[in-house]
């Protein structure tokens, strides 16, 4: 199967769809030329030169072709052997970096990073009048393709609804609903449209970017509740939201 450079770059950047990614990874296993071409397109590859003098102690083993070690050489002498050794070292470093290159961040990680920039001053002056919220929720629900159950969000205990904002992650609408707790600290509830066929995921609690988070997914949508700090207790709001957004 042939892949365009555009498709391969999308794969390297984490933007290829699941089917394309699976096809590329399967092809790499049997096509060394494709793997080399993919690495040539990888903007991360130049760091190989920077770490060449500091090769890790444990690197993937590279087996030389049998002819390279069994057939006598009539010319080139030690220079040929030095070139082979240098090539092996480069392959070892490249393989190590390729295997350990950072994975692209998902939508939840990026949403948490965005939310971590919020302070009480960020949301203190937001216009959360009924008219402003009407317009924001109308736009958000139109982009998302499902209702956001505003009445439930406005009734969450101890929280004041401040704004509904339309964001985007890899071309998919991502809605951020912002709240203030009784201390004025910002919290958020996010919903992303993942599309038909997206896997269902049970609630997962984690600390991302220094904030307590809860994520789950169902019926083509992903959901995320984000606290104001790493110790925020999300259980009360989580019980209400998981029951409300169960499908």
Number of helices: 11
Strand order of the largest sheet: 1-2-3-6-5-4
Average predicted confidence as pLDDT: 81
Name the shape in a single word.
elongated
What string gives the helices and strands in order?
A: HHHHHHHHHHEEEEEEH
Ends distance: 38 Å
Output the radius of gyration. Answer: 25 Å
Number of strands: 6
Strand content range: 15-25%
State the major sheet: 6 strands, antiparallel
Structural class based on helices, strands and sheet pairing:
alpha+beta
Question: Uncertain spans, ≥5 residues at pLDDT below 50?
Answer: 67-85
Short summary:
The protein has 247 residues and is an alpha+beta fold. It has 11 helices and 6 strands.
Layout: helices, strands, pairs:
Elements: H1 5-12, H2 18-30, H3 32-41, H4 47-50, H5 66-70, H6 77-100, H7 107-116, H8 120-124, H9 130-144, H10 150-154, E1 160-169, E2 172-180, E3 186-193, E4 201-208, E5 211-218, E6 221-226, H11 235-244
Antiparallel strand pairs: 1-2, 2-3, 3-6, 4-5, 5-6
Helix pairs in contact: 2-3
Describe this structure in words.
This protein has 247 residues and is of the alpha+beta class. The protein is elongated, with a radius of gyration of 25 Å. The longest helix has 24 residues. The protein is 44% helix and 20% strand. The protein contains eleven helices and six strands.
Highlighted features:
single chain, alpha+beta, six-stranded antiparallel sheet
């Amino acid at each position: 199967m042939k892949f365009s450079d555009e498709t391969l770059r999308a794969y390297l950047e984490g933007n290829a769809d699941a089917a394309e990614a699976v096809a590329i990874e399967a092809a790499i296993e049997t096509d060394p030329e494709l793997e080399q071409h993919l690495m040539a397109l990888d903007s991360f590859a130049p760091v190989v030169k920077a770490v060449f003098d500091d090769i890790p102690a444990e690197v993937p083993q590279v087996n030389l072709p049998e002819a390279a070690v069994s057939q006598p050489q009539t010319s080139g002498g030690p220079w040929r052997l030095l070139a082979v050794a240098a090539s092996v070292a480069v392959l070892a470093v490249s393989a190590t970096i390729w295997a350990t290159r950072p994975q692209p961040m998902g939508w939840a990680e990026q949403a948490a990073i965005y939310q971590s920039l919020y302070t009480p001053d960020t949301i203190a002056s937001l216009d959360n009048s009924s008219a402003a919220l009407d317009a924001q929720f109308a736009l958000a629900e139109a982009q998302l393709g499902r209702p956001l159950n505003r009445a439930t969000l406005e009734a969450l205990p101890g929280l004041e609804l401040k704004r509904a904002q339309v964001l985007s992650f890899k071309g998919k609408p991502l809605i951020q609903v912002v709240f203030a707790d009784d201390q004025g600290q910002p919290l958020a509830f996010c919903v992303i449209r993942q599309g038909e066929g997206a896997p269902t995921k049970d609630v997962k609690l984690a600390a991302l970017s220094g904030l307590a988070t809860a994520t789950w997914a169902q019926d083509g949508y992903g959901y995320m509740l984000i606290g104001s700090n790493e110790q925020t207790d999300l259980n009360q709001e989580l019980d209400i939201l998981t029951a409300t957004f169960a499908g």
